[in-house]
Queue: 2 jobs
Job 1
Amino acid sequence: MKPNQNGLRSYTIIYLIFLYAPIILLPIFAFNDGTIIAFPLKGFTTKWFEQMAESDQLLTAVKNSLIVASASAISATILAIFAARASTRYEFRGKGGLMALIMLPLVLPEIIIAMAILVILLQMGLNLGLHTIILGHTLMCTPFAIAILTAAFQSLDKSLEEAAYDLGEDAFSTFRLIILPLVLPGIISSLLISFTISMDEFILAAFLGGTETTLPVYIYSQLRFPKAIPVIMAVATLLVAVSICLLIVAEYFRRRGIAKTGGKDTGGFL
Amino acid sequence: MTSAKPMIELKDVQKWYGDYHALRGINAEIRAGEFFSLLGPSGCGKTTLLRTIAGFEDITSGVVMIDGKSMEDVPANQRPTNMVFQSYAIFPHLSVEQNVGFGLRRDPRTAVEKQKAVDEALEMVGLKGYGKRAAHALSGGQRQRVALARALILKPKVLLLDEPLSALDKKMREHMQVELIKLQRQVGITFILVTHDQEEALVMSDRIAVMFEGEIAQLDDPESLYRRPKTRKVADFIGVMNFLPATVLSEAGGKVDVDVHGFGRATIDAAQVSNSHDGATAVGFRPETLTLLYEGQVAADREAPGTVEEVVYYGDMTYYDVKLDGVAAPVRISMRNVFGREVLERGARTRVAWAPGALVLFR
């Protein structure tokens, strides 16, 4: 082994500990029988999960988050299907610039988007609520959805469509019989990732929610109360578990989509 | 097999892509039941022409007729043509038999009859028993067969093949060439093949249209195309053609007297003259029309002295580049390596037998 490889190995290990140690602490304290988040541990309990299930405010926040995440995922994916199809199949003037503008929210500071949308909504005299969070989250999820779906549409050979057409199908049945089954894994993957992003999102939800709270906003508000912290740990533990599951399912569908069309894997989130 | 009735008529077909003139007035008739090839280098418009017949490209002006009917406003999914794509375009999420039976979806026949048709199509292309396999698990040659079965199951009037063999290795390609010819004879359908491989076109076709820059340069049967190319460009594209500068001395009664550099004077028939006006006057001849003379051999017709400049040994054949006395550029000669015939060394003095009947005069 070369000498500098030892250094790189230590660096990698330290990096991973730094990244994941706090997350591993969540489930530890979620099952710890004590209100103070500190070692030594006091014993195993599931009472924080029980308390969690009894909190009406929390359940409302979860329900709100599920509504927002589902709606945002569906609208972002539908918008992204059109954009990805257009950008992979057709050539038109200003395509590059247009796609860059659509993808820009990926790198734009979220707080700027949140403020800008808030100012405009207030100027328009619209009430804030779940619908405005959905609006913001759709804007934020769409670039991710486009990135996933563009890959799915790109790996689709144009002659497959022509072959179906040549064999007597029309544009609609070609879409249904050939295109849709082949990009379906991409669509599912896009839905799941958009859902996860929206579920975790804080800034837009806090700015645009008005009196409605989503789960991240609720969690943040509860951190002021020391007694509530173990319950939050329990919530966070569940959230991490669900997020990981969703991402794995999303990645599974993305890879299956690429394998189906016989393409080569060129990236992705996992 | 072939009859004189045209299956496809192309009348002054023009295609513009913006400023680019892709098809510059194509006129041709393709006979029913013939194996027809569109041959040319990449970018010559051969694929565009094929896609025009299929209905995937609109034409800017002109007429495309299939079986006596104008194809104007007839979309690709209603034309009596089916296509084998260069990438084969096998639907990767369907099984082999779902692929082959795809075109029968709107067919009113019963499921049992359709299954029988699928089985027959698979047997025809030599894939009997492969029906249940996943399409993406097939080899290149098998995909090609599935694509053929899928296109032929609809019994089209014309089968269009877009460079179907270019993705296969040499052995497989040569094997499929013969299979395709046999298949075409068996089904009797008009085949139109697009290829950039002149050998493939010569092997497979009843007639070939050689295309350059959006125009048909020559439309002929393989032998005429090879032996009597109408322009230097066609001559150069198909096989190897030697050129020697020549001067026309006199012309009378269907005979032309020429002085060929390196060969001397010769009288050739008017049928051997190509008035292409695409360069200086020269005679062309194929490498196999010349013979190297060995010690004691005498030419049947005419002979010229020269020196062997390069020897390229191919096993069954040897190619010699021979510099004829008094000519700067060498000519290529091919000799079969028959038993007992020695392969000459570089630098050897030799005599070359030639015949005026094998010359083509370009002027």
Job 2
Amino acid sequence: MTGPAISVRGVSKAYRLYRNPGDRLRELLSPTRHTYRQDYWALRDVSFDVPKGRTYGILGANGAGKSTLLKILAGRLRQTSGTIEVEGRVNGILELGTGLQPTLTGRQNARVNALFLGLDPWRIEDQLDRILEFAELGDYADQPLDTYSSGMKSRLAFSVLTALEPEVLVLDEALAAGDSGFSQKCTRFIHDLCNNSGCTVLVVSHDMEFMRNSCQHLLWFEHGKVHSEGPPEQIVSGYLESFGGAEVELSNRPRYLLFRVTPEDPAQQLDYELQCVSWLAPVGSLREDSSTWRGEGHPFVHYGLQFLGHDAALFETFRAAGVLGVTQRTAREVWGPVRTIEEQPPYRRLSPHRGPGGVAYLGLPVPQYPLPPPSGIRMFGINELATPLVLSVQVDGAWHELGKFGTPELSVEQQGHYLASHPFDLKGLMDRFADSFVGGEAPAPAEPSA
Amino acid sequence: MSETRQLPMASLVVRLLRPLLGEKRAREFVGSNYAVATLVYYSFRTQHGKALLGLVWALLTPLLFIVVYVPVLGAMGMSASADSVLGEGRLGFPIYVVAGFVTWTAFTYGLQNGSTSLVDNPDVVHHSPIPLSILPLVKVLNGMVGLLVSGVILSIGLAFVGRFPGIRLLIFPGLLILLAMFTLGLALLCSALAVFFRDVLQILNSLLLIEFFAVPLIYLPTQIPEGYRYLLDLNPLSPFMELAHATFIRQYPISWHMLGLAVLWAVGTYAVGRLVFLRLERNIADYT
């Protein structure tokens, strides 16, 4: 056994919170050095080592400081105190698809994205073919990105990371993308990277299966500290037990209907996904064929809608709610009882420091804001939630609230939640939360109109 | 080596620089510049890509500007007095306005987009290992590429009407470099400050609104009353405008005074912007 590749010693990170920008200016100009800020400690005195070539996992609820630690390791944030030593070239994948531009083609985006991920410019042209081959986009590689479905975008985004040849890899929920076939390919890739490449990996995930199978050691974060660490099996079971053995109250479970999307080639996949969106559309403003569904609801096709990234989390969600046609007042009324966000300082005031799990945490409750109660069936559709979201829904403690999924009225018998996604992502969710799992086929695609 | 096949231009540059810097540093240098160039190229493409007329807008916008402004200014009697000074007949003033306007556009595009480049791209700021200063740099260079394209088109246009600037075009690269440094300095300064105080962006826009009239763009310096002309020397952008005018108008006086001022402003602003950016850089990701 050689020395550690990552050595973290007594690392703490404080985010400075100001009530408003004026306070920041006042503090800056204060002759008496009076402080107007509150410090929020995202990490407190964290220490651990990762030996060379090993794969360590970090788990913990949203807001436990996991993403902050990874950003520090990737060199993006600076710790407030403590030391970090990393041996070797670090690549951090903290988010898939950094800097993607809708007007550029898949190939061009792969190039830009690879540059943003820090790939050696000399190797990009060589790697480009490999990236596109992995993404299996076919002719779509030279189409502009705004013609892509969300699944195809994430395939492209994931593929870029296959070009990196890291010595130390830091991964935040970026384990898989796309449909089940592709997502297995991603999982295999990550698994190989973790086990056979000699690369040192530190990974944050809510995918307990992955944590059990691919990690040699787990760290459990809670409130910015290492709660405990040890062999995967032991930590995972301890973690799951910590919120009531992962059991959810049966009485409040919503109904789900699953649209299965099984594409063979990308073009067909796009068709299917558009089809699904249009099936979901009648529930909301994209109304296409109201006769399909009775009742009202709203479609929810993308959970990060209108998240600007620099606003306080509360307002981010209001904005997202606004896009769905929910007034701020309604949102505010419902938000309080539904979410525990008010007790989550990092999310309330410090939106930019969310990891991917945090964005999901903020984004998914948004469609729970009720529209004016309609008569009859109420439903909303969710299209293609990104894998990290679903995984955090599955296991993150706070997300066990999902069992109740908002207000009790949403859980009345007739109400339905319609999710379009790839079965791989949702099977676990269905098994766990849904009392009637309709493993339905995708609605037959309509004949292309002449 | 495979990259010799893949990046022929870059490999050529490396071969040229090798005696100066050594193999490794030359490759790093060219590699990072290649990365910036790629990002600028795509930024430029994105800027023009969705428009039906694409690059044609680089020519069309200044022409529309003439159509709107020149008759108005003519009615005010400004163009007549200008034409006699510029010595290009009736075309003098329109050429003057266009030369100034393309320069102004490049400056404001780079400055405005550069200033918002950090706050508008939190995902890159948080997740990408590239140096943060690349974001404003790319936008500023994007503006300069625009100016280069406009300059070429304008020169061709001038050749058609028999007023090709000839040898004076040698000033143009100097203008591009100095203006890029000046704009980059301001963009670095504003982009970093905007992370902490978004007000900077509003203030910037207001200042640009004033600057549009404060800089000799739709009037000649000689049209300013004698007693107030010293104000031009205080306006940091006016020497760059002078350079632009001197590039495209054959009889426009070239003053070493203005060239000196342009160099001073460019170097000084870049130095200040760079220093402030370096100072604030470590905290940018915390607040974006």
